[in-house]
Amino acid sequence: MALYDLTDPGKLERPALVVALDGWVNAGSAGTGAAEALTDDAVIIARFDGDSLFDYRLTRPTVDFEAGVMERVGWPRLELFHQPLTGRDLLILTGTEPSWNWQRLGHDVAELAMRLEVVESISIGGISWAAPHTRPVTLITTASSSDRVTGEHPDGLLRVPGAAVNVIEFAMTRSGIPAMGFWARVPHYVGSSYYAASLALVERIGVHLGVDLPKGDLDLEAADQREQLDGIVRERADLKKMVAKLEELVDGEQVVSGEELAAEIERFLKSQ
Question: Taking phi first (over 0 means left), then psi (-120 to 50 degrees means alpha), and beta for anything else, what does residue 67 get?
């Protein structure tokens, strides 16, 4: 039995699948923030079985009480949205990263993608990085084959702890569906959602697919957050010094050692 229930969306035009999960490799909620903008006014066409995917002791449901009366239980979800665009269709798989059955999930998502005749898969997320908020967000690119890798990408062998989004991407590739990954670098010191990273991901997907994508309020939220971060930096001498070192590193004006940079970040984090 499949892990999902599908409502047939009908014939789709060159559908691309975007996958963004809340959990590992989602620093600053970069991927899920982008997915939230992309699913604005979108329709849910598939829901995945939470009881088969989530350990509720780790990802607990929320319970709402009104005047002492239990009104609602909110369960962690994994859903597939359909966003029709001009000239093609976009599918967005987003929600909480599952606790278990990752291989089965990858198989079922790949089977579902083939059923819907998906022509390409795009994984998105965020990576905590030694990057200043005062510079444009940079992205790391991964792909299912070397000829599809563009822009900045890891050189040589890179071994990292895997995420469910990686397992899904690998299953897509093994099913013959080309895959891309766009990973936004998120400043270490931003502990909340980083809207500039989500915005950068939406824009990069749009350029890659050659379509205009919904951005929601990301432009405004990114601008407001930039003002807030600038204000905090002006008032904190230690943070101002750390951001300046990050700027020097990015701009290439001065070589900052990894030890020195790590020490600055550690001192700031301990002060919080």
Answer: left
Among the listed residues 186, 185, 183, the one whose alpha carbon sits nearest the alpha carbon of residue 165: 183
Q: Which residue has the tokens 């059923």?
A: 115
Q: For residues 48 and 164, give the distance between their C-alpha atoms in angstroms, rounded to a whole number.
A: 14
Please state, rounded to an integer, the average pLDDT across all residues of the chain: 91
* Residue whose tokens read 């989500």: 198
Give the Cα-Cα-Cα angle 205, 121, 170 (nearest 5 degrees): 130
Predicted confidence (pLDDT) per residue in 254-268, tens digit: 555 556 556 655 665
Query: Contact at 8 Å (CB) between 183 and 127?
Result: yes
What is the residue-wise DSSP string for 51-85?
Answer: HHH--TTTSPPEEEEETTEEEEEE---EEEEEEEE
Q: What is the pLDDT of residues 178-187, one digit of tens each?
A: 999 999 999 9
Instruction: Give strand pairing partners of 62.
Output: 74
Q: Residue 69 pLDDT > 90, yes or no?
A: yes
d(C-alpha 132, C-alpha 187), whole Å: 6
Q: How far is CA 146 from the centre of its chain?
A: 22
Per residue in 108-135, pLDDT (tens digit) is: 999 999 999 999 999 999 999 989 999 9
- Using an 8 Å Cβ cutoff, are 88 and 13 in contact? yes
pTM of the model: 0.90
CA–CA separation, 243 vs 187, rounded Å? 10
